[in-house]
TrEMBL record:
The Collagenase NC10/endostatin domain, residue ranges: 1-166
InterPro entries in alphabetical order: C-type_lectin-like/link_sf, Collagenase_NC10/endostatin, CTDL_fold
Protein name in UniProt: COFA1 protein
Xref: SUPFAM superfamilies: C-type lectin-like (SSF56436)
Organism, as annotated: Baryphthengus martii (Rufous motmot)
Stored Pfam families: Endostatin
Gene: Col15a1_0
Length: 171
């Protein structure tokens, strides 16, 4: 399952699932992508289908392994990953080195176990109000689910996860 960043940073007011869907389509990717965010309807840990949570590795756009599987992100260690494996955007830029993302921080709105934090997810990702807060993770920590609170007015990286793996048809 590919973990890919949106092509631009976003404030806490975003239509992230739609953006993930649209940018994946524009990049010519055929699978469905969802935002790597907890929402008012769903905890982050449940965004990927149950059948795909254990046996598929989580990889970057170029197929390099970030996590052994989806469940391993939510084992309580904050989603520890190898910071030497880049995370790319849909237009193939490395979010860790590209100046398009001046702040190397990702929004997630979750606990270290991927459960939604209703007080810290920018009012279900519908506000960029400086007084509202969202849970996010500085990537230099090497953790996708590091627990840090930021104002929703910040423009951070938004990740998308492939949530329906479609294999090539036989033949």
């Amino acid at each position: 399952l590919h973990l890919v960043a949106l092509n631009l940073p976003f404030s806490g007011d975003m239509r992230a699932d739609f953006q993930c869907f649209q940018q994946a389509q524009l990049a010519g990717l055929t699978s469905t992508y969802r935002a790597f965010l907890s929402s008012h309807l769903q905890d982050l840990a449940t965004v990927v289908r149950k059948t795909d949570r254990y046996h598929l590795p989580i990889v970057n756009l170029k197929g390099e392994i970030l996590f052994s599987n989806w469940e391993s992100i939510f084992n309580g260690d904050g989603g520890q990953f190898n910071i030497n494996v880049p995370i790319y955007s849909f237009d193939e830029r490395n979010v860790m080195t590209s100046p398009s993302w001046p702040q190397k921080v990702i929004w997630h709105g979750s606990t270290a176990n991927g459960i939604r934090l209703t007080g810290n997810y920018c009012e279900a990702w519908h506000t960029a109000n400086a007084g509202a807060t969202g849970q996010a993770s500085p990537l230099e920590t090497g953790k996708l689910l590091y627990q840090k609170v930021y104002s929703c007015s910040n423009h951070f990286i938004v990740l998308c996860i492939e949530n329906s793996f479609v294999s090539d048809p036989p033949g």
